[in-house]
Design goal:
By secondary structure, the protein is α+β, with helices and mostly antiparallel strands. It folds into 2 domains: 6-53 and 75-134 and 150-186 and 194-215, no CATH class; 257-507, Gcn5-related N-acetyltransferase (GNAT) (Aminopeptidase, 3-Layer(aba) Sandwich), CATH 3.40.630. The chain has 9 helices and 16 strands. The chain has helices spanning 111-126, 169-175, 205-208, 255-261, 390-398, 401-407, 413-424, 453-458, 481-498; strands at 6-9, 15-21, 24-29, 42-53, 76-81, 90-98, 155-158, 201-204, 293-296, 299-302, 313-319, 324-330, 429-436, 439-448, 467-473, 505-507. The strands form 3 sheets. Strands 1, 2, 3, 4, 5, 6, 7 and 8 form an 8-stranded mixed sheet that branches. Strands 11-12-13-14-15-16 form a 6-stranded mixed sheet, with helices on both faces. 32% of the residues are buried.
Length: 515
């Protein structure tokens, strides 16, 4: 039976409904009133499964067609309606697009980017379906038990049909890394839009998850007079003010003031809009810089890019098996709780969730601004981690016996303050808070192995772009094997897509750690 209607939770906080239609599936943006800039209104993808068999047609008299002696049997090609994923026999293409009204939104500056976004979102849904059997069924392994059969990559074929027949479109999608082909030749046909070499395209699950979502997700630009609210601030700074701070734009405001005075028009705060925010409504992916080297403590290594700023969410992903969004942000030394401006699926949204505009809020999200949050004093007895500053979180977690045993950072809040200042000043690592649906659950440190003490032990085995992670899960309700797998793979996922030159992510648990 084909997959039933479902909701796809994208990492930028937007949701898509997926409805079965004749021959395929219709993708449509839901809760449009929550987003000041919406996805394309919808699109339809056609998915089919195919297989090959040695069976031949029967003649009217019921006798099988007699083959010529010595001639190989001709395999017959069968196409079936899509029911469930196969290892590599599924075909997909976008058949049609439903664009929003031109009265509300400008046409996308790059139709190719828009199609790439729709294809990426369609594959996001597809690769979350039930994984097919990994074993390859070949002529040679026909009588071999499954355990002894070779395994293959889960991949889906992308057909050059429908919308994807556009001029040079498949070629551009291949340059983006969204499509691949086993035929790496130039081809002998001189025509520019030839199907030669471009008709057998595919993408594997392994490749897909190594592509950054920031390369494909973007929003449409509202037109003047649109019924959809736009950004509360102009996209260009005003002229410098005589006597003012030359290093600060006159339009720049404290993030707490912005959150206090204005509500966000969507699930993301306008002051710290997360990794997918773009005033130009373009994809927010930027490639890593060229390599430059420096020397630290006698170790030659690449100059590292700056980490995300304090309080910034740099990774978000919906985890279907948990039913919650997993997000990571940089630690903040602010004396006030960091307002959560990421997506959430909880009916009980965090009390410090940045306030969307009241007119566009769903019933289950309360319009509470950051100015209404009063951090508990260090001596107060509270279990609500959403109302704690990061210093208070670290003070609580570091004084847990099982944590103190390994981290050795227990004591008064001043101890954790110095600890965080040291880590925020580090040039090869940065401190991180992990959250489930906006609720902090643990502390992490992401570091470059080459300059770390671990790199000195590994020597030449430490690659220039290897990453490492230190881990502390402070909230018991978020402990457990399944959640551990979720956040470990999420941190590894972030490291791999942040810089494609990263080939390893390491952990270094103590030998006496029983967990």
């Amino acid at each position: 039976m084909a997959p039933t209607p479902s909701i796809v939770h994208l990492p930028n906080g937007q949701n898509l409904s997926v409805q079965p239609v004749f021959g395929g599936f219709f993708f449509k943006s839901v809760e449009l009133n929550l987003h000041h800039n919406v996805f394309p209104a919808g699109w339809t993808v056609i998915i089919q499964s195919e297989d090959y068999s040695d069976e031949h047609d029967l003649h009217d008299d019921g006798r099988r067609h007699v083959e010529l002696s010595g001639m190989p049997k001709e395999k017959r090609h069968h196409i079936h309606p899509f029911k469930e994923p196969t290892l590599r026999n599924d075909n997909l293409f976008i058949s049609s697009i439903s664009n929003p009204s031109s009265n509300d939104f400008k046409a996308p500056a790059s139709p190719t980017r828009q199609i790439a976004m729709m294809l990426w979102a369609s594959l996001y849904w597809y690769f979350h379906l039930k994984e097919p059997c990994p074993h390859l069924h070949t002529e040679q392994s026909r009588n071999t038990p499954d355990a002894g059969k070779p395994k293959g990559e889960w991949r889906i074929n992308i057909k050059r049909e429908g919308v994807l027949r556009g001029r040079n479109l498949v070629q551009k999608l291949e340059r983006m890394g969204l499509l691949s082909s086993e035929d790496s030749s130039v081809g002998v046909t001189p025509e520019e839009n030839t199907p030669e070499g471009w008709s057998e395209m595919f993408i594997s699950r392994r490749t897909y998850w190594q592509l950054s979502a920031k390369l494909f997700l973007f929003t449409l630009t509202p037109t003047t007079g649109s019924t959809f609210p736009a950004s509360p601030f102009g996209s260009r700074p005003s002229s410098p003010v005589r006597g003012g701070d030359r290093n600060q734009s006159p339009n720049k405001r404290d993030s707490s003031d912005i959150a206090t005075q204005l509500g966000s028009p969507g699930l993301w705060s306008p002051s710290s809009a997360g990794p997918f925010s773009s005033g130009s409504h373009l994809p927010t992916y930027f490639p890593p810089p060229p390599i430059q080297y420096t020397i630290t403590s006698g170790v030659r290594h690449p100059i590292r890019p700056k980490p995300p700023r304090q309080g910034e969410i740099f990774y978000a992903r919906y985890v279907p098996s948990v039913g919650q969004y997993l997000t990571f942000r940089t630690v903040s030394l602010s004396s006030r709780p960091v307002a959560y401006n990421g997506p959430t699926t909880s009916l009980n949204a965090p009390k410090h969730h940045s306030a969307p505009s009241r007119s566009s809020l769903p019933a289950h999200i309360s319009a509470v601004t950051i100015s209404e949050i009063i951090p508990p004093s260090p001596t107060s007895d509270t279990d609500d981690t959403t109302l704690m500053t990061d210093l208070q979180l670290l003070n609580k977690w570091m004084n847990i016996e099982r944590v103190s045993k390994f981290w050795g950072c227990s004591g008064p809040q001043g101890t954790q303050e110095q600890f965080l200042k040291t880590n925020l000043s580090s040039r090869h690592s940065f401190p991180v808070i992990g959250m489930w649906d906006g609720k902090p659950f643990g502390y992490f440190e992401i570091y470059w192995v080459k300059e770390d003490i671990l790199g000195k032990h590994l020597g030449e085995e430490a690659d220039n772009y290897d990453r490492g992670v230190h881990v502390l899960v402070g909230e018991d309700e978020f402990r457990g094997e399944h959640r551990v797998k979720c956040w470990i793979t999420a941190l590894a996922h972030w490291a791999f897509i942040q810089d494609y030159r990263t080939n390893a992510v390491v952990l270094e648990p103590r030998v006496d750690n029983e967990r």
